[in-house]
Each structure stands twice: as structure tokens, then as C-alpha cells.
Amino acid sequence: MINKDLILETINMIKLYNLDIRTVTLALSLRDCVDSDVNVVCENIYNKITHYSKNLVEYANEFENEYSIPIVNKRISVTPISLIGEGCKNPDYVKIAKTLDKAAKTAGVNFIGGFSALVEKGMTKGDKLLIESIPEALSETEFVCSSVNVASSKAGINMDAVLKMAETIKKSAEYTKDRDGIGAAKLVVFCNSPGDNPFMAGAFCGIGEPECALNVGVSGPGVVRAAIESLDKNADFGTLSNKIKQIAYKITTTGELVGRKLAAKLNIPFGVIDLSLAPTPAIGDSVAGIFQAMGLEHAGAHGTTAALAMLNDAVKKGGIMASSHVGGLSGAFIPVSEDAGMIEAASKGYLTFDKLEAMTSVCSVGLDMIAIPGCTPVETIAGIIADEMAIGMINKKTTAVRIIPVVGKNIGDEVIYGGLLGKAPIIAVNNLSSKCFIARGGRIPAPIHSLNN
Questions:
Q1: Hey, which residues does 214 pair with through a beta bridge?
Q2: How far apart are CA 430 and CA 407, in angstroms?
Q3: Which residues, at least 6 apart from 192, have a Cβ–Cβ distance to it below 8 Å?
Q4: Which residues pair with 20 in a beta bridge?
């Protein structure tokens, strides 16, 4: 029987509280595009991407209209490009990046991810070449996103790669200084990066993934906040957690319904549903707003990390009950520039860099879309990355760093990117030197719990 209350609840979620399918991401293997000639590789890549993605945007738009559920982003993720290009006699990773960009433009998608390398235990010649090409590649493309995994709970932290990525972040910002360092906003450094993540900038098609699949990312911070606000203000945390789980269940069910039907129409397998609460700069679509609904004066108050831990756990529990195909990152994102509440908290000094780092120990990703002074030393950036990788390695979770050293700007200034990337205040980092520590190089060994065979 049709339940009018459930229909009205779903309509309210969409119209009033910003419920949406945040992204449908076509994950595509490019392993059969390898050739000794980079020109042939580029031709193979372009032909394969455009063939598989030719109906992605059209069909997604049709489903958006049919179900009246917004599908905000349509994206593509591919095999880490370091693996595809290193077999060339004349490797040219910038040329491959431009091919990815051209294919993304033809497909009509928002972003294409996978200009990536996996170097947690060491770097091949191809990995090094790709990493060195990232600043130029991101400055000369519009849709390409890049990620590099430098640590894992099994391998430890590749500190040589950490330093190299710090240099790469700095150069990426400098290469795009006329656009407030937006190149660095499309680059993320990972620990324990999942191969089925549909969100950018970290999406790529992992080695163990099928030929192609459709991965779906749902979101709904506004829906969760509204659900919490519907409870009595004195409701205890058990009641609060159960309410979040119920909403996560409904959000997951909605996302998987759309994802499976779209995958079937595209005639490709359905992959995973990522439950991450991904905020936007829109008012009412904020993870920070959830903390206020829980009773904190603002994000950054003492208790914020505990609130985030409970939120993350409840979202995952509710989603797991709704679907057997939960994957990706799944939980809650805390990107400073992409969340209206986080922007306000950082601007007013409620959220410091150290508090953000503490919160990453319990959230889905890590230090995300944080603008810092352009004069920040490379070794300090490397220290920031190392700290975040350590949190992920020890806790056996995904963590990441996406920071933007904005050239010519300092604490108190602001960068405005617009759209989903939003805006961010430049926040302070610790001025103490990490130089001698970072200069040691080598690999920080994996923790004892890595030996769990």
C-alpha cells in the first residue's frame, strides 16, 4: 500500500533539506589501453572513455527527471594513470592528462579522476614521472583530478613520497596562482585509499575493480540535521543515534534504487553506494549544522570530535542495514571550503588547524579543502601530510590531505572558487620547523597490527 506520510517525507527531504544523489561515477579500467607508443595510448584512452560514457549524462538526466531526485554530478574514474603510461617508450603524462580532459569534455561530465599513483611502499619510474607532471597537468586541464596514495596500514608511510607530494602541492598552487591555486584543490594525498570511491578529487578505478561499474555517492547533511531537530532537545545520545541510522537507511535505499536502475540502463554492473555526508556551500546543507542541531554552539566547540564520531558511526550502521554494497569512503566529510558552517567556523576562529586534525581521526577522509598561507614551507606541508597519514595508518582507516597554499595570500585573507568548491579563509599553521624530521626520508614502518595474516 502507498504510504502518504513516506511520500511527503521524501518530497520534503528533496525540496527542503537538499537530499540528492551527489554523484554517479563511471569507474572504468584502462588496463587494455597500454602501448609502447604514447600516441596510441592516448587514442585508446579517448576511444574507450567516450564509448563507455556516451550515454552517462543523458541517462542520468532522464532518471533525475523521472524520480525527481537531483543527480548533482556525473563523473568518471579510471585506472591509476601511472600504470598506463609507464609502458611507453616515450612517456608523456601531461599529454595523457590532456586526453583525459578531452574525453571528459566529450562525455559532458563534471570531473574525471585517476591521474593517480599508488606509492605507499615505493615509487617506480612511471610513478615518479606522473607525480612530477601533476602541477603542469592540473594547470593545463579543466576536468582532471589527481590523487596519490603514500601510506597504508600494511605498508607504512613512504616519507620520500610524502616530501615529493608536498613539493607537488606547492608547485600545483604556484602553477595556478592566477586562480588562487585551484590546481592544488584538485589534488589529494591518501592513506588507505579505496579503489571504488566515487568522490573527487580522490576517485580512481582500483586494480581489483571490474572492467567497468557505476558507483554512486549519496548525501544529505540537511536531512540529517532536520531529523535531529525533530527530536526532543533532551533526547539522549542513543535516541539521537537511532534517528540518524533511520535517516541513513532511507538515504541509502533511495541512492541504491537510482544507481541500480541507471546501471542497468547503461548495461554495466552496479558497483557500490558511498554514504558520505558531503556538504555544499548552500545554506542548510552543512555537516557543521548537524553539530549545532546536536547541541554544540558551533563546530569547533569542545565535543565536536565526539559528535562527529557518533555521526560517522550512525551513518555507516544505517547504511549497512540498507545495502550489502556499501563502499567508497562512507561517513561524513568535513571540507572547510565546501561547507557553509565550516567556512563560518574557520572564519571566526572556532576551528583551528589542530582541531580539524583531531576531527579527522573519526571522520571519513581528512584535512580537506583547507587554504593556508602561500609562504608555508614545503617541509611544513610534508609534516602535515605525515601526521594525517599516521592517523590513517594506525587507525586502519582512510585519511587524506587536500590543502591549498595560496600564493600571495596570508592569514585573514580569503579565496573564492565558486560552485561546489566554495570559498575558504586562509588559516594559520604551526610555524615550528619540521625540516630535519622530514629530511630523514625512507619509510615509517607499518604498525604491529599490520601483521594480521
A1: 26, 270
A2: 18
A3: 149, 151, 152, 153, 392, 393, 396, 397, 398, 399
A4: 219
Q: What is the pLDDT of residues 194-224, one digit of tens each?
A: 999 998 889 999 999 999 999 998 877 888 8
Instruction: Work out the number of other CB atoms within 10 angstroms of the CB of residue 283.
Output: 11
Q: Phi and psi dihedrals of 49, rounded to 5?
A: -60, -45
pTM, to two decimals: 0.91
HSE toward the beta carbon, residue 448, CA cutoff 13 A: 0
- Name the grid cell of 24: 554517479
CB contact set of 232 (below 8 Å; sequence gap of 6+): none
Contact 214, 25 (CB under 8 A): yes
The SS3 of residue 148 is strand
172-181, 195-204, 226-235, 321-330: range with lowest mean pLDDT: 321-330
Burial of residue 377 (CB within 10 Å: 0-12, 13-18, 19+) is middle
- Asked if residue 201 lies in contact with residue 402, where contact means CB atoms within 8 angstroms, the answer is yes
pLDDT of residue 90: 86
Whether 191 contacts 392, CB under 8 Å: yes
Q: What is the mean pLDDT of the chain?
A: 89
279: buried, middle or exposed (CB in 10 Å: 19+, 13-18, 0-12)? buried
Residues 211/29, Cβ–Cβ less than 8 Å: yes
Per DSSP, 240 falls in state: H
Distance CA(393)–CA(184), nearest Å, equals 23
Cell digits of residue 422: 566554495
DSSP letters, 316-341, are: HHHHHHH-S-B-SS-SB---STT-HH
The Cα 103–Cα 174 span in angstroms is 26
Beta strands in 201-303 (DSSP E): 212-219, 270-274
Q: Check residue 429 and report its DSSP letter.
A: -
Q: Cis peptide before 137, with omega less than 30 degrees from 0? A: no
